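Hi R.,

Quick one: here's the Putative sigma-70 factor, ECF subfamily sequence you asked about.
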Amino acid sequence: MAGAEATAGVEAVFREEHGRLLASLVHRFGDLDLAEEVASEAIEAALVHWPVDGVPSRPGAWLLTTARRRAVDRLRRDRVLATRLAVLQAEAERADPAPPADADPDLPDDRLALFFTCAHPALPAQDRGALTLRFLAGLTTAEVARAFLVPHATMAQRLVRAKRKIRDARIPFRVPGADELPGRLPTVLQAVYSVFTEGYAASSGPDLQRTDLAEEAIRLARILRRLLPGEREVAGLLGLLLLVHARRAARTGPDGAVVLLDDQDRARWDHAMIDEGRALVVVALTGPTPGPYGVQAAIAALHDEAADVASTDWPQVVALYDVLLGMVPSPVVALNRAAAVAMRDGPDAGLALLDGLADDPRLRGYHLYPATRADLLRRLGRLDEAAAAYREALALVGTEPERAHLLRRLASVAED
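And here's the predicted structure, written out as tokens:
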């Protein structure tokens, strides 16, 4: 039993400390592959020692010290690697001067530098967010693949290719200067949002939510907001995360079962978080054309401000989705817009829009597409079709609470 508890402790610590651990190792040694390998070796060492010695009081420091020792040992054995890393580190130090004496000591500079390294413009656009999500949030390759709606093998290839590009192009490990920030920021924001998305709606596992990831994303968004107070899209992203995360306590029942928005006890929502998010929406929407995070935050605010689903300003929600779809022509945005149209104009109208998305390959494997169709078919009384769509969603769903919810819905429409 002690061994199982220690293993669970290692896994919890690794999930919490992974980004900090990896960023510190990359900062010290300048190589993602080496950092990843020695981080894994430190975890393996913890699995050996912690069941015997107990989990240390500062587990993150224990892992970092162990990983650094493993890296030094490896460099002593491999002179070619040591020479290459020495060159990389010297280049990074020339490009990344010491921080000013009055720098905020609470800012996790190493982690921010790793974010911007992963979002470097030399990397292909499709690889940047995936690389960041894998190494900063500690998600598995399978989880990253699901977040980006691509096959596992495709994502594994992307990650390998991106790491090779960082190494071969000698991309520096540093926070970029003010002149570079506008071009690099959107990818960093997308990476933070992807972390939050996995936390808000886990892609797999026994729980609907992974609040540790959601809260990590919010913390990182707060850091970016402090660093870039004049960037309205940073305010929009933070506002969006707060407005959505404010509902976390009401999204599941005592047994972990899914509670849909229609049935949530809105008194359990975090209203202080909602107030903070709404204030950030004002910042995000004040000025020239807003960005996509500001628009999404405005949609979330409309949901949070309503007394119930029926009284939500659905025409305004649809109008905002129209704006968002013009900015981000994503099938997931189109899916959400169709659901909002169904609330405004009825299930027939929403279903027609969903059927228009049926051939989009980017929705294959995305369980919310057949699940949304099933709900609209159920509302229309087309129960046989609804049952078929629920079965399709069940074949794709990743978490146990969502599976249980879909099974209940299937039972409500299927014939005995």
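The CA atoms of residues 51 and 213 lie 26 Å apart.

Cheers,
M.
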